From TrEMBL:
PROSITE patterns registered for this protein in UniProt: ALPHA_GALACTOSIDASE (PS00512)
Name of the protein this chain belongs to: Alpha-galactosidase
Family: Belongs to the glycosyl hydrolase.
Enzyme class: hydrolase
Amino acid sequence: MITIDKENGIFHLHNAQVSYVLQVVRDRYVLHRYWGRPLKTFRDSSPMQAIDRAFSPQPAAWPNERTFSLDVLPQEYPAYGHGDYRLPAYEVRLANGTTVTELFYDHYEITAGKPKLKGLPAVYAGEQEAETLHIYLKDSQGKLAVELLYTLLQDSAMLTRSARITNCGSEALDLTNAASFALDFADHDFDRLNLYGGHAAERSLERVPLMRGVQETGSRRGASSHQQSPFLALARKDAGETSGEVYGFSLIWSGEASFVTEVEQFGTTRVIGGINPFEFKWHLGAGEIFQTPEAMLVYSDKGLNGMSQVFHQTVREHIVRGKYQHELRPILVNNWEATYFDFDEEKIDNLAQSAADLGLELLVLDDGWFGKRNDDNSSLGDWFVNTDKLKQGLKGVSASAHKRGLKFGLWFEPEMISEDSELFRAHPDWTLHVPDYKNSFSRHQLVLDLSRPEVCNYVVKAVGDVLESAEIDYVKWDFNRHLSEAFSAALPAERQGETKTRFVLGLYDVLERLTAKFPQVLFESCSGGGGRFDAGMLYYMPQTWTSDNTDAICRLSIQSGTSLVFPPITMGAHVSVTPNHQVGRVTSLQTRTLCAFAGDFGYELDITRMSAAEKEQVKKHVALYKKLRPTLQLGKFYRLLTPFAGTKNETAWQFVSEDGKEVVVLYFKTLAEPATPIRKLQLTALDADAEYELTDYLPAQRTSHDFGGEKSLDMKGQVFYGDELMYNGLGVEKIDTDFAAYMWVLTKK
């Protein structure tokens, strides 16, 4: 609901979860006044105070009013050059070389529902699900106009923001910065939380005090990246997983992003998020429009878990689309770590038979099926079957899977090209490259220039032809290097700063066309694992390969960090061989399995070489997962313990079914310790007055060093009230082995 106090220029966006307040002052400036717990009405109980701030200049209209300066106003979309010395939300360079503009409030509009953003993924909502406030700003000299879009979802603490910038003048201008949002807080008593990492080590949580000056989380790699996730949170010092105030920001964008915080001289905090302005330049001709990506803003007074619940609900109900939005995801086996490039029809056929015997549901053929691809040196771009390996083509291996009751999936990397490929020999200019300089290679490959429509058309046709050539149910879409030499042979000099942005827009165009044409295909995004795990990709592909690192212990932090924003149903999580191929760690099959339960479950190993005992255990795990799958994939997810807090030695996750009748709890202890207190695991989000029966329990697998004498804490069949489970907790059986994993299943009576 949006309430307007015209007399005082106040716009109050509110529902039962949150309030967000703007105010227009002096008929010119749009200021941020409040964001937090829901208010009945905003009557300005803490009015802005007029204070003479030295070295803070006055606007031209009020030259002698020393208590009024843009340098201290909490502006919603600030500019630079008229006395506000903090970081701006946008920057332009006009035809005459100057960079100073000034935006004044013009008018507003309120619309039901949520407008689409042309060419961009965004939150979607119907007329009964949301309301949108449009604030229109105009430059005082008519150079440009900006439309600020604010959408508040009904019954959610989710607010979305973006900006639409129009060149209103007669001459072209260059946008050199165009943030999706800016926001000023009245203080800086926060911790700053971001998700950092690298390939095979994505999304670890870093929490540091907010410092004076500028701090940035950002990617300059052409993609949202393994290194810095497009996410930021500001949390009050006392905020934890279940209590305290948290403000979360996530960008619906798969390219370079930036989140900047600036604590300035008077202790206030400015937050700006959007496309990374580093080397960004958009040449905006007269009358042309630039639409920024959309940002999701979440307020929580229930800590990080409260923030995550809002993000999860929004991603599941208002980002992910199509057939698989609410559909259970299949249990797969991927041949990559089983065979790498060394496979033929017989190996894949044997893998299919073993998968069917174990109760799996989807066979995925990974890299190496196309062109002359026997290693990573060639053939990217040549999307036709390698008949030396697959004599009967894709129809043969697809039929092999389907006759055994399995679905069949295929790996692609359509944004890339190998120098040793028919495509490169025909179109060397289709790569991103800089004239007069040699290209950098990564994984022996170059990047196709998706800023060019003809290249996008080629990708759509090439991939589409393959998908029409056989019965293909699933696609793993990979992206195994970041951009370098980001120059397009098809763009004029004044538009080269647009190349990386146009690359992402071209990708979105390709994905929109392919997913619309093949709605029955389950698409999974991948970028060397989780290098492009963002809401932009999830708009087209409902799940993402979380990391190339399949080690269960590494995955505890990777999946915990990912869950800050994204629900488990979006995370690919597989059981791999031990010793693990990435870190060499040895873990039990149960530990690897229970960690992979917390995502889209599958196997990434040669199941044909498992022992008879291992196969029997896998059959039991698969049957158990199928039973629990509705809760694990569609239920609400809570972090009870995280590897980012305390000793970093424990992780616990809880899932509650949509109807609240089933609860699954997973607990992991990384290293055994002597003389430790008994862990009591306090559950959350239960009905305090209801009874819950412990219907299943998996204790950790013991090693050969079992000294005996200890009694198991298997309380299967016992019944407890919800209040006891939440406030007293479940006792965790002490076990002296590393990498231990436990599971409890409770059923509400």
